[in-house]
Write a structure and sequence with these properties.
This protein is mainly α. It contains 16 helices and 7 strands. GO terms for molecular function: heme binding; indoleamine 2,3-dioxygenase activity; metal ion binding.
């Protein structure tokens, strides 16, 4: 267990300093209270900053590996604040993925200049040493104001491609996170209201949710405005890939983290994915949506039970993970609604108007979350499925072995039956449809 993984006190029903300190949840939700640092505070880390600034050009010219190989092994002792730790994590994970995927073939060995500090920084932040949603979006943006809802004013600090397409892709997620912050405070109050059986307040919160889910979904639908699906699929997405289940992309054993002096180990990790958003799992937790382990066939042919949602929490910052783990202790709206339905259906007991309103409000909220997930499926079809089947026309690195080349080849080979792999290492469409259906059942199974 991580030294940071302590049992936490009861959450107060508002986002106050205690919650921010304990769980890193702010008035902006899982985003920081203020925009992330643009540079590390100590000039000692200038070698990292210089490479990060030049990353798109170094990748384009296929010089990223030789430049990283020349880096000194820097100590983490000069990281002075949590903002510094986060900035260092963002830089080193971008350099990591640039190094792995920035050539004609995937690099299987990560050098000590990256491995040694990254392992220590990741341990401090309770994150794996790989690009995660936190490093790609939550801690990787600039904003002219303290409000991060205006996607037009946001800009990514680091990208692999230097394109507006890539910056927009990350910033849409940042804006969605900020829009979802209100859901956190509203639903914490609803859970407190449930504890004292103030059912009208719980119902009011649930009745408010569908409009908020639509607002967040509307932001998701803006992805195409400045992010071209072909650019995303062929130029951006390959760099988000992890090292787990990536044999077809040239990493049958994952990546070797070389710590120098003969130390190191082979590691397989999922890549950056919006499935690592704590906000989306917060929606599931407060609505009681259960995601049961799915059965899949392993590379050896053996069937195995896989709980992606539990595993992916290990790719969230430690405080956010503990926040999600604590939520069930605050009460379950779904269980209460199910008890109402059982009393009426099995016992023939009349329920109160307040209870009837709560049941309708709950079913409406889960239906709205289901619709949000349908919108996400439509986005996946537009940005991944169609580009994979169309193939690449235009500039790029056509000979490179990466997630895009492996997925595209599979799609062309198997057509509509192909199971494209997501950056997180999952079979994409079956997984997303399974999650969507579980969300629908959370409400539809209550009569």
């Amino acid at each position: 267990m991580s030294p940071h993984a302590v049992i936490t006190p009861t959450i107060s029903p508002v986002i106050d300093e205690a919650i921010t300190k304990e769980f890193a949840v702010t008035e902006n939700g899982f985003l920081p209270k203020s925009a992330p640092s643009k540079r590390l505070s100590d000039s000692y880390y200038a070698p990292w900053e210089r490479l990060a600034y030049r990353l798109p050009l170094l990748i384009q010219e296929e010089r990223i590996r030789c430049e990283v190989d020349l880096l000194p092994v820097l100590s983490v002792d000069n990281l002075r604040s949590e903002e510094d730790w986060r900035r260092a994590y963002v830089i080193l994970t971008f350099l990591t993925h640039g190094y792995i995927w920035g050539g004609q073939k995937a690099a299987e060995i990560l050098p000590p200049a990256i491995t040694v500090p990254l392992l220590k920084i990741s341990s401090h932040l309770e994150l794996p040493p790989v690009a995660t949603y936190a490093g790609l979006a939550l801690w990787n943006f600039a904003s002219p104001s303290s409000s991060f809802e205006d996607v037009e004013s946001l800009k990514a600090l680091l990208t692999f491609t230097g394109t507006e397409d890539e910056s927009w892709f990350y910033m849409v997620s940042v804006a969605m996170e900020c829009q979802g912050a209100q859901v956190i405070s509203k639903m914490l109050r609803a859970l407190e209201a449930l504890r004292v059986r103030d059912l009208d307040s719980v119902s009011a919160a649930l009745e408010w949710l569908p409009e908020r889910f639509r607002t967040i979904g509307d932001m998701l639908d803006r992805m195409h405005e400045r992010c071209d699906p072909m650019v995303f699929y062929h130029d951006i997405r390959p760099f988000l890939a992890g090292t787990k289940n990536m044999s077809a992309a040239g990493l049958p054993r994952g990546v070797f983290f070389d710590e120098g002096d003969g130390k190191g180990k082979w590691t397989e990790l999922r890549g950056g994915s919006n499935g690592q958003s704590s906000l989306i799992q917060f929606f599931d937790e407060v609505l009681g949506v259960e995601h049961k382990p799915a059965t899949r066939q392993s590379p050896t042919g053996k069937k195995e039970e896989v709980s992606y949602h539990e595993e992916v929490r290990g790719y969230m910052p430690g405080p956010h993970r503990r926040f999600l783990e604590h939520l069930p202790r605050l009460g379950s709206i779904r269980n209460y609604v199910a008890q109402i339905a059982d009393r009426e259906g099995n016992d023939g007991e009349a329920i109160s108007p307040e209870e009837a309103r709560l049941r309708v409000a709950y079913k409406g909220a889960t239906a709205a979350l289901t619709e949000f997930r349908n919108r996400h499926l439509n986005l996946v079809a537009r940005f991944i499925i169609l580009p994979a089947r169309q193939g690449r026309n235009g500039p790029g690195r056509p000979g490179a072995e990466n997630l895009a080349s492996a997925s595209s080849a599979l799609a062309r080979q198997k057509g509509a039956q192909a199971e494209l792999t997501g950056t997180g290492g999952t079979a994409l469409l079956p997984f997303l449809k399974h999650v969507r259906d579980e969300t629908w059942r959370a409400g539809s199974e209550i009569k």
